[in-house]
Structures are given as C-alpha cells and as structure tokens.
Amino acid sequence: MAKKTPAFACTACGDTFTRWAGRCTSCGELNTVKEMNAGEAQVAAKGREQVRAAATLATEAADAPAPQERHPRLTSGMSEIDRVLGGGLVPGGVTLIGGEPGIGKSTLLAQICGAVGRTLSVLYVTAEESTSQVRARLERLSSLAPHLKLAATGDAAVIAGAISSGDYRLVVVDSIQLLTLDGIEGEPGGVAQCRSCAATLVEATKRSGRDGRDPTTLMIVGHVTKDGGLAGPRMLEHLVDTVLSFEGDRYQDLRVVRAVKNRYGSTNDLALLRMGGEGLEQVADPTGLFIADRDPGVAGSCVVPTIEGNRCLLVEVQALVNQTEYPQPVRKVAGADQNRVAMILAVLSRRLRMPLGQCDVFVNVTSGARIQEPAADLAIALAVASAWRDVPVPADLVALGEVGLGGELRPATRYDLRASEARRLGFQRLIGPGAGTGRGRLVVARLGEAIDAALG
Ligand code: TYD
Ligand code: MG
C-alpha cells in the first residue's frame, strides 16, 4: 500500500503528519500543527535520500560531453547562417526561426533543406502549403535534393514520430502556429497548442540519438507580428536551444538574421542576406551595404562605422529637426535606442544651447540597420546638429565616439578595424575622441569641438 503523504506540519519542531492533531506528538506543543500548502507538502514528501542524491560534488560530476557535442555540426549551406549559429546546426539541437509573415522564412528553410538534403536525409514538414507548392519553390531555388522528403501535416504527434524514428538528420517544421495536438484544447496558434506542440517536438528531438544513431536536428518556424505580440515564438524561446530572428523590410531586399538566444554560440553576430529572384543570397562585402543609397550633400546625415559581432558595418544616421506645431514636440526614433537619443538631445540642448525643446526631432538609421552601441552617439549628435544648422556633414567624414552627460566624448573599442574599413570605402576623415593622430584623424574631446570641426 502506498504511504500516505503528510499534509500537516508542526510549526514548532517541523515534524510532519498525515492527520491534524491539537497537540504535536513529537514536541508536545499545543496548537502548532497546521495544514501545509501544496508546495510545502511536496517538499515534505521528498525523502532525505532523494534530496541528497540530487546534488553531486562539482569535481565528481561526469565530464563527458553532451550527446550532441559528439557529432559534428551540420552546415546550412550558407556560411553567413552557420556563423550566426556558432558554426552550423548542432545535431540534436532545436532552432526556432521567428519573423514576420512574408519575410522569407520558408525560403530560407527550403534552401537549407536543399543544401543538407544533398548528402543527409531531411524531412520538410509544411503545415501551411501543399507538397506541390513546396516542391515548386524548391525547384525555383535549385534546392530539389535527392535525400529531401516532404510532408504536409499539422499533426504534432506525427511529426514527433518522424523525429523519433531516427530516419532523418534534419527535420524542419513550417510553422508552429498551424500545428495541433489531439487532446489539447484551443485553436492552432493559441498559447496552449503552440506550447504543447513545441514541447512534444523538442522532447522527441532531445530523445533522438540515445539509441546510438545520429540525433535529429530540428528547426521550427514561428511567425511574429511587428510588435512581437502574436502568441508563439516569444513564449517558445525558453523551450529551444537557439532562436534566430529574421528581420528586414519585406519591401526591400535586404535581410538580417540574428541569434537572439544561442546555447551553442554567441548572440552578437548577424547574417546579411539579400532576397533575389533565386532566393536568399549572401552578401559578399557587407561593410558598405547600408550606405549604398546615401546622398551625402543633404544636411542631417552622418555615417558611423559600427561593429556587429566581428565585423564592421557602416551605417547612416539621418535626422530631421523642425519647429514644432504641437504643445509637446514630436520625438521619433527608428533603428536606434530611444532613450539614448533622448539623452543626446538633452546634452545638445543643455550643453550646446540648441533649442531643441521647441523642435520636433526625427532620427532614422537608414536601410533597416540598427545601432546598438554607444559608439554611435557622436554620429547621432552630429546628424541632429547638422539638421538643426542646415549644414551638411562633409561627405568624406565618419564619426565615432560615446557622448557623456557633460558633453565630453569617450573613445570606442576596435578603433583600427573601424578606421580601416571606413577608409577602404572612401571616407578620408574620422572624427572622434581618443589617442593617436593617424592620417585623416580629427581628434576632439568634447561634443562642441566635434560640431565645430564637422560643421564649421
Ligand atoms: P517566404 O519565404 O514565403 O516568407 P515567410 O515564410 O517568412 O512568410 O517568402 C516571402 C517572399 O519572398 C514572397 O513575397 C516572395 C519572395 N521571394 C523572392 O523574392 N524570391 C524567391 O526566390 C522566393 C522563393 C520568394
Ligand atoms: Mg512561410
């Protein structure tokens, strides 16, 4: 007979009982036996041995690698994507690819399946399209591979079965929002269905490879709306090993893939791709990609060499400053941190007496690029100052440096890489704080000096 779990405990001596009593039979205190809540009861139910067994000396913990690390990574066929993944897809790992509808997730997966399916068995599961539609896309992308199978189903149990079968080295599911699991309430795409289906697939993936066969790698597509609001990818992030975010403007051809979570690599690299007539192509030399359409003669524009991962990318900050017609001036920022811009505007107002309080200010980083480092502060400040004075920043100048609240400037990291990449793309001068006075170097210590030097 199963032992009854204790539901009562003495608040004086801590002993536990299956029944309530007015007096504790262990310590003899009166009125100290109280009913435990569910959590306390669970803790009490665990035997001492079980608790002890849960911990191991760190020095004695098994040092064997996790099963997936024993197998070489799969290459996606695109070195840019492999780099973002930290060196390819980890066998037995689960990657979630999130992005807005129409951004190119199915295209990317089709191309990856085509590349991997040349030598390894791959299953592409589509819950959104028919197999003939997928086939047509594969053909168009020159990705019809000999070891690639297609399945049109939204039944998560069937897909989990395919993963468990050990027949495939890679399984791709497009998309999680259309999967269902029998016995789970709710519509496809709802929280309950998404979570249960994802958990089922992830479990099957993690179990794969235990029988000595090669583990199965899983890639799941999840649609995200612009504000990330859709039930789906956000709440699945903790279930998976890697989350790739697929971004870009669906009306322009540039696409950026970043790892927002990665158990098997860093999260600061990004892949730059272009959507063309034959699918996604890697961009060979991305340094100048974001400034390709720049018109340097216009006031309110400044270029900054930013670092993304291990790479230097030149991006253009644009600003527009306008006398406001509203009681509260408008502040709009795209591609940069709103708070950072607010801080820079405050420094310009207070330290440099620019009356921005009466102006609407718009700041935009062009071509869908995003600035994430304070090293771009000076370029933002110069773009705003240039817009306000209506004087363009010289066409051959890039700016680099962090702006402090006192109007002082601080140097950026990776100076040499940034300077040489800017020079390679035709920028003769670099303005910013810091040591060294190499060719084309304009050394300034304060924001005011930088504005005077750049705008005269
Ligand atoms: P898709 O991969 O279907 O997007 P998602 O799965 O994220 O919803 O791609 C959508 C767009 O990409 C579609 O508007 C057509 C375009 N596209 C190309 O420009 N070139 C191509 O080779 C392919 C396959 C698609
Ligand atoms: Mg799709």
Lay out the secondary structure:
Blueprint: E1 8-10, E2 16-17, E3 33-35, H1 38-45, H2 48-53, H3 79-85, E4 94-99, H4 105-116, E5 122-126, H5 131-140, E6 148-152, H6 156-164, E7 170-174, H7 191-207, E8 217-223, H8 233-236, E9 242-248, E10 254-262, E11 270-276, E12 279-282, E13 301-308, E14 311-323, E15 331-334, H9 338-352, E16 359-365, H10 377-389, E17 397-399, E18 402-403, E19 409-410, H11 415-424, E20 429-432, E21 441-443, H12 447-455
Parallel strand pairs: 4-8, 4-9, 5-6, 5-7, 7-8, 15-16, 17-20, 20-21
Antiparallel strand pairs: 1-2, 1-3, 9-10, 10-11, 11-12, 13-14, 14-16, 18-19
Helix pairs in contact: 6-7, 9-10, 10-12
Bound molecules: thymidine-5'-diphosphate and magnesium ion.
Magnesium ion is lined by residues 105-106, 128, 174.
Oligomer: single chain
Rg = 29 Å
Q: How many alpha or pi helices?
A: 12
- Biggest beta sheet summary: 9 strands, mixed
Q: Which structural category fits the helices and strands?
A: alpha/beta
The CATH superfamily of the largest domain turns out to be P-loop containing nucleotide triphosphate hydrolases
What value does the average pLDDT take? 90
Hetero groups: thymidine-5'-diphosphate, magnesium ion
**CATH class category of the largest domain:** Alpha Beta
Please name the CATH architecture of the largest domain: 3-Layer(aba) Sandwich
CATH-derived topology of the largest domain: Rossmann fold
Task: Tell me the overall shape.
Answer: globular
| Poorly predicted runs of 5 or more residues | none
Helix-residue proportion: 25-40%
Order of strands in the sheet with most strands: 6-5-7-8-4-9-10-11-12
Indicate how many domains the architecture comprises.
3
Number of strands: 21
Strand content: 15-25%
N-to-C terminal Cα separation, in Å? 91 Å
